[in-house]
Design goal:
Order of helices and strands: HHH
Radius of gyration: 23 Å
Strand content: under 5%
Number of helices: 3
Shape: rod-shaped
Mean pLDDT: 77
Number of strands: 0
Structural class: mainly alpha
Oligomer: single chain
Distance between the termini: 65 Å
C-alpha cells in the first residue's frame, strides 16, 4: 500500500460508503498541487531569462 493510498483511506475512514465517491481523493489533490508547483517553477525560470534579456532589448531599441 502506498502513502497516497493510505492518505485516501484515512481521509474517507469516517465517511459513509455511499458518500465516499463524492469526496475528491487526497492523492489527486496532491498530484494537482504538484503540477501547479512545477508550472510556477517554469514561470520563475522564464522570468529569470526575460529579466536577463530586458537590458539587452532596451539597448537595441536605443540603437535604432
Amino acid at each position: 500500500m502506498s502513502v497516497s493510498d493510505q492518505l485516501d483511506s484515512l481521509a474517507t475512514s469516517g465517511v459513509p460508503a455511499e458518500q465516499r465517491a463524492d469526496l475528491p481523493a487526497v492523492s489527486g489533490q496532491l498530484n494537482e498541487a504538484g503540477g501547479q508547483v512545477k508550472q510556477l517553477h517554469r514561470l520563475s525560470q522564464l522570468n529569470q531569462l526575460t529579466g536577463q534579456a530586458a537590458p539587452v532589448v532596451g539597448l537595441l531599441g536605443a540603437v535604432q
